[in-house]
Amino acid sequence: MRQMLLGLKETIDEIAAGKTLLLAGDEGLLAQLPKGSWIGGTIPYFISTDQGGLLSSDKIFVTDISDIAESVILKKYTEDTLETVYQDAGDGGFSFIIIPASSPAHISFALNAPNYSDFGSQPLVGWISGVKLDDLGKIKPKVFSGRTGNSYEDEALVMHVTLAPGKAVDAGIINIFEQGDGDTLTFDQDAFSSEEVMVNGVKKNFAEYITENKLDTKLPLVANYYGALINTSFQAVSPEDGVSFYAPVFSDVRYKHAKRIDDYAAAFSKQLMENNVAGKKIAFSCNCILNYLYSELEGKKTDPFVGPITFGEIAYQLLNQTLVYIDIHDDSDVIVTL
Q1: I need a surface site. Which of 35, 95, 177, 284 has the fewest CB within 10 A?
Q2: Sign of the CA dihedral 329, 121, 115, 258?
């Protein structure tokens, strides 16, 4: 397993050598790659081993999973066929997914993934592709299939991986946010936006509530899913249009605004210790663009995690402001899913 930031020629050499790769980079670079056993998504932000957080349009982040993958199947999914992604996964491996931001597949997956048939039966990990922030609204995020050489704006791409004999996989998350001590917030429907919110059971205008209570919208809403803390990040707050999110809120879930974090590095180190990351073999990881921005990660390292900085993270379902990783170990080891 290797994770590295490479130039175009070096990446082409890896593909020519028959490597099985997970790629992230600028659209102009991915479009020049030859066909092969790879899947890729557009993004120019990364965390690298040497430089820490950086913006680069001439580098591709390469995750080589050749030594743990016995075989792979690349498949394209539309918003209507994504519901079979867990059924298609097979046994004894994991699936890696990339979805373009704001695409029909992105919206469908975000709203419906927890209700897919066989949800959670096998690890599904990946990310939401994006663009340079200056290009938002000008260029559409894309995903690339190494099998066909084609790019897609509206569909998801998945690499279903059968692991080499003796290997096992675990999907983990690092979430530095905790529920605060404030009000309990609930919503009437599953949606990416809401004009109203139930505050401790009382209906209120959500934008007015945020303004009156001076909520810091850099901090997400946090829900407790049977012990796993899951974030929903704010996108915009408008008195006229209500409140929009980067992931949907769900009607059957109770949320609280996150506790304030004064020191990202300290909070991250604490989570590494609590999640017993030391000694794990990290095959892949990605972190959120909001963490990159709000925590000022440019030039900073998040060892042992490197990889793309994304417009959303996937560990079974869509996540926000979360680091997601794949841990590979011998199948005789005890598996602990975070």
Answers
A1: 35
A2: negative
